[in-house]
Specification:
With 316 residues, the protein is mainly alpha-helical. It has helices at residues 9-18, 26-36, 38-42, 63-103, 107-110, 123-143, 145-153, 159-162, 168-176, 180-190, 194-212, 230-234, 251-261, 264-284, 290-297, and strands spanning 239-240, 243-244. Strands 1-2 form a two-stranded antiparallel ribbon. The protein starts with 8 loop residues before the first helix and ends in a 19-residue tail after the last helix.
Length: 316
């Protein structure tokens, strides 16, 4: 195994220069590398290389251009993250309302195994999830202001308070093991099928964690594919071997999910922000075209038209 050694800022600059990157202002480049981390900035170099085998930067690629790609990814990550938090909050509210209304608002009532699916193959998962939620109650009853307030003053923690301290991943898993009728009632709020929501939620949870930890977003691929939607058809997305090339397991598939789960005005505002981010990147790129970045994101060239497609299309 090759051992990696610490490189100071001067050495980092030389490495980039030796790979063909133009650095016009070394002082500026050192300041950026110190603040942003060479490793993270270098993660965007692949867009600007000749090939996977020839890893030199394309001729005339500048440090500023590489950094603009880094900033673009940060920008769209922040835009998407804040909207994922809206979806997370909405979902927690809807689930807690449905379960509290049907099973009661005290944990001894809503955390009963009989309130979840009775499918034999899900029995262990149900037990494990209830244990996770009970553990969160024990941990947060002293550490979280809202849960502490209810525990001290009422002697229980209602579901609508508990969901505030549950991770998106736990809430996503909880939906997958609810009774069919509860899944249907929750999915109805979004005008999607329970099966679709079961597919969507783990994808959303994974992207939420990716954004929270500031990982590279733009070219991330998911393990699960979403089903074909009317949006793929309306946008005339190209197919290869009868499979859409965009919007299945890429960042554009996340936008399609968010189209279905955000209210129209929220989604339109998000798309406008993303359009501005793409336009800014387009202005800052010179060595490559912005279309190359969109391709890596899984965005068709007319991706922004998704903004004006009404949800009523889904029922036509």
């Amino acid at each position: 195994m090759v051992e990696k050694h610490f490189r100071n800022l001067e050495e980092q600059i030389e490495i980039l220069k030796n790979k063909g990157l133009k650095i016009n202002n070394e002082s500026y480049a050192k300041d950026v590398l110190l603040r942003e981390n060479y490793f993270f900035l270098n993660g965007y170099r692949y867009l600007f290389m000749y090939s996977n085998t020839d890893k030199r930067f394309l001729e005339n690629t500048t440090f500023e251009e590489l950094y603009s790609m880094f900033l673009f990814d940060r920008n769209i990550r922040n835009i998407i993250f804040k909207n994922l938090l809206i979806i997370e909050n909405n979902l927690k509210s809807i689930i807690s309302y449905q379960l509290s209304k049907k099973y009661g608002y005290k944990e001894r009532d809503y955390l009963k195994e009989k309130n979840f699916t009775r499918r034999p193959e899900k029995k262990k998962q149900v037990k494990d999830l209830i244990s996770k939620m009970q553990r969160q109650i024990r941990i947060n009853s002293r550490d979280h202001t809202a849960t502490m307030h209810y525990a001290d003053n009422y002697g229980y923690i209602p579901m609508w308070i508990l969901v505030k301290v549950l991770s998106f991943g736990i809430v996503s898993e909880m939906y997958s093991i609810l009774k069919d009728d509860d899944q249907i009632q929750i999915a109805k709020v979004y005008h999607v099928s329970p099966d679709s929501l079961i597919t969507y939620l783990p994808i959303l949870a994974n992207y939420r964690n990716l954004c929270a930890h500031e990982d590279i977003l733009f070219d991330n691929k998911t393990q699960k594919q979403i089903e074909d939607t009317i949006y793929h058809q309306l946008l005339n997305i190209q197919k290869e071997e009868d499979e859409y090339i965009y919007g299945k397991c890429d960042l554009f598939s996340l936008l399609i999910i968010m189209k279905e789960l955000l209210v129209n005005e929220e989604f339109k505002s998000m798309i406008i922000e993303l359009e501005n981010a793409v336009n800014t990147l387009d202005y800052n790129l010179s060595t490559i075209k912005v279309e190359k970045v969109l391709h890596k994101m899984g965005f068709p060239l007319n991706w922004y038209e998704l903004k004006n497609m009404e949800r009523s299309y889904l029922n036509e």
